[in-house]
C-alpha cells in the first residue's frame, strides 16, 4: 500500500456508502491522529484501537437517518505530490462547512486550529 491515508479515507467513504456501523483500518500513528480529530470534530461516533501486536483501529460511523454524516472526503497531499501551506494559505472547505486536516510540527490539527496557532504544514485532506 503506497498511500495509507488515502486507504483510510476510502474505507470511510465506502463504509458510509454501504451504511456500515463499524469500519476497521490497520493501525498507524498518523491514521489514529486523523481518526481522533474526526471524532473531535463530530464526523465519527467513536474510535477504538484494538490488538497488541497487530493493531487495528475501529471507527464507528455516525448517521442522520440513513445518510452518513461524512458527505465527502478528498485527499490533497499525496506521495507523488506533497502540498504544503503556510498559515496564511490555509483554504476554507465548502465556505467553512467542511474541515481541512493538516500535519503540522505540533501534530495533526484542523485548518482553523492551525490558523489560530499561526502554523502551517502539509495539507492532508478535506472532509465535509
Describe this structure in words.
By secondary structure, the chain is of the alpha+beta class. The protein has 3 helices and 10 strands. The strands form 3 sheets. Strands 6, 7, 8, 9 and 10 form a 5-stranded antiparallel β-sheet that branches. Strands 1-3-2 form a 3-stranded antiparallel β-sheet, with helices on one face. A two-stranded antiparallel sheet has the order 4-5. The chain is globular, with a radius of gyration of 14 Å.
Tell me the layout of helices and strands.
Elements: H1 4-17, E1 22-26, H2 29-41, E2 44-50, E3 56-61, E4 63-64, E5 67-68, E6 73-75, E7 84-85, E8 99-104, E9 107-110, H3 111-117, E10 121-127
Antiparallel strand pairs: 1-3, 2-3, 4-5, 6-10, 7-10, 8-9, 8-10
Keyphrases for this structure?
single chain; 128 residues; alpha+beta; five-stranded antiparallel sheet; three-stranded antiparallel sheet; 3 helices; globular
In short:
Helix content is 27%, strand content 34%. The protein is built from three helices and ten strands; from the N terminus they run αβαββββββββαβ. The mean pLDDT is 96.
Q: What's the count of strands?
A: 10
Averaged pLDDT: 96
Strand portion:
25-35%
Residues in helix, %: 25-40%
Low-confidence stretches: none
What spatial form do the alpha-carbon principal axes imply? Answer: globular
Alpha-carbon distance between the termini? 25 Å
* SSE pattern, N- to C-terminal: HEHEEEEEEEEHE
> Which secondary-structure class do the elements indicate?
alpha+beta
